[in-house]
Amino acid sequence: MIGILALQGGVREHEQTLDRIGVAHRQVRRIEHLEGIDGLILPGGESTTMSKLLGLGGLLEPLRELLSGGLPVYGTCAGMILLARQVLDTRADAHSFGVLDVTVRRNAFGRQVDSFETDLDFSGITDPVHAVFIRAPWVERVGPDVEVLAVVPDGPAEGAVVAVRSGNALATSFHPECTGDTRVHELFRDMVAATV
Ligand code: GLN
């Protein structure tokens, strides 16, 4: 059972992707929705808004506890921002869970490539993954225990780190849930299955 944080943002696309691979899911909006989940997806959207809603709704501390206890988690875009230890270009009062020892920069790609698509080599996935970036963050610093899974191959943002994993935390700057490609979600399903 995978919970999808459903305070704001692109929840439906994750639901559809999990449906396609036959994984049970549930929206997480209140504390009681955390009961019995085996993994959690933090969707794309607006990280500062999600952060505010997490605080207001009382989910921030229970989630922080579950994540630091090793609950498998996958964050896309704004979700990646929420997982990072350090966030650049955000609001001073924005919260993040800090389970990924990385520094990310919000809206990092700049005006010209603000939103774009490209094909990426993704560690652990055989053929390239088509990646859709929507006002995405990138990773600027990677801690010693963090594995880089994908970088932008060419263009103005060549070399930017856009997919990482550390222990049970997986994050992508882009949105596999928007392309009909289920392979990153399958990778996450396997991470979850390995812990239950
Ligand atoms: N720019 C958004 C933020 O900072 C992220 C965009 C997205 O999730 N597609 O939260």
Structural write-up:
L-glutamine binds at residues 45-47, 106, 134-135. This is Pyridoxal 5'-phosphate synthase subunit PdxT. One of its GO terms (molecular function) is pyridoxal 5'-phosphate synthase (glutamine hydrolysing) activity. Catalyzes the hydrolysis of glutamine to glutamate and ammonia as part of the biosynthesis of pyridoxal 5'-phosphate. The resulting ammonia molecule is channeled to the active site of PdxS. It catalyses: L-glutamine + H2O = L-glutamate + NH4(+); aldehydo-D-ribose 5-phosphate + D-glyceraldehyde 3-phosphate + L-glutamine = pyridoxal 5'-phosphate + L-glutamate + phosphate + 3 H2O + H(+). This protein has 196 residues and is an alpha/beta fold. The chain has a single domain (2-193), classed as 3-Layer(aba) Sandwich (Rossmann fold). Helix content is 25%, strand content 30%. It has helices spanning 11-20, 47-57, 60-68, 78-83, 183-195; strands at residues 2-5, 25-28, 39-42, 73-76, 84-88, 100-105, 115-120, 129-134, 138-142, 147-151, 161-166, 169-172. The strands form 3 sheets. It has a 7-stranded mixed β-sheet with strand order 2-1-3-4-12-11-10. A 3-stranded mixed β-sheet has the order 5-6-9. Strand 1, helix 1 and strand 2 (25-28) form a beta-alpha-beta unit. The longest helix has 13 residues, at 183-195. It is globular. The model has no long low-confidence stretch (mean pLDDT 96). The structure holds glutamine. Glutamine is lined by residues 44-47, 77-78, 81, 106-107, 134-135.
